[in-house]
Write a structure and sequence with these properties.
Distance between the termini: 36 Å
CATH class: Alpha Beta
CATH superfamily: Spore Coat Polysaccharide Biosynthesis Protein SpsA, Chain A
Number of strands: 7
Radius of gyration: 16 Å
Helix content: 40-55%
Length: 204
């Protein structure tokens, strides 16, 4: 399945983590297609990368993610077994401390409400990505969540990959854990509350 995979990595200016991620991907670089680009915004970068890709599956990775051999094997297995699903990983942050709570919350949110975010390594067949209109570029944040909603509304099922994808906790360190956690929760409530309660009622 790896030969059918394009890895799309949006890159911000002065991104320092990309080299580390590319070294993680080095064992499969001759098998997969790796596209890194910066088009002014994360959403636009991912859209341009996806449209220029030549493989049938798209794996969107943040530049500050870390990829392990277990991640790759788990993704390959999931794509083989459920090629029509939207795949996502469990989230983990590097280091220790309060971000363990954030990772736990993100994983519970994904399982209960079916709303994984972009740092959980979303992977989808290109045909489904194109059918829902790609990542919205006219929003200040939450383009990953909106893509997930559009795909689910189109009937695409979610598939949790039982492998932890590691991402950097640098934003929490730079902006402060409490401040950033409250900001993310505010955004989550603003964008997701109606949809979340609808999904919760449907499962009860």
């Amino acid at each position: 399945m790896l030969e059918k995979l394009s890895i799309i990595i949006p890159v911000h200016e002065n991104e320092k983590h990309l080299k580390i991620l590319l070294s993680d991907l080095a064992p499969i670089k001759d098998v997969v297609e790796i596209i890194t680009l910066s088009e002014g915004s994360r959403a636009k970068s991912m859209n341009v990368g996806a449209m220029s890709s030549t493989r049938p599956f798209l794996w969107f990775l943040h530049a500050d993610s870390r990829v392990t051999e277990d991640n790759i094997k788990a993704l390959e297995k999931s794509l083989r077994e459920k090629p029509d699903a939207l795949h996502y990983f469990d989230l983990a942050f590097d280091g220790v401390g309060a971000t363990i709570i954030n990772a736990w919350g993100a994983n519970m949110r994904s399982r209960l409400f079916g709303t994984p975010y972009g740092d959980q390594g979303l992977c989808i067949a290109k045909k489904y990505f194109r059918s829902v209109g790609r990542y919205p570029e006219n929003v200040p944040y939450g383009e990953d969540l909106m893509l997930v909603w559009h795909l689910r509304q189109a009937g695409v099922k979610l598939n949790r990959i039982p492998s932890k994808l590691l991402t950097s906790a640098r934003k929490y360190k730079a902006q402060g854990w409490l401040k950033l956690t409250l900001l993310y929760q505010k955004r989550w409530i603003f964008m997701s509350a109606p949809e979340a309660w609808k999904l919760l009622r449907a499962k009860s």
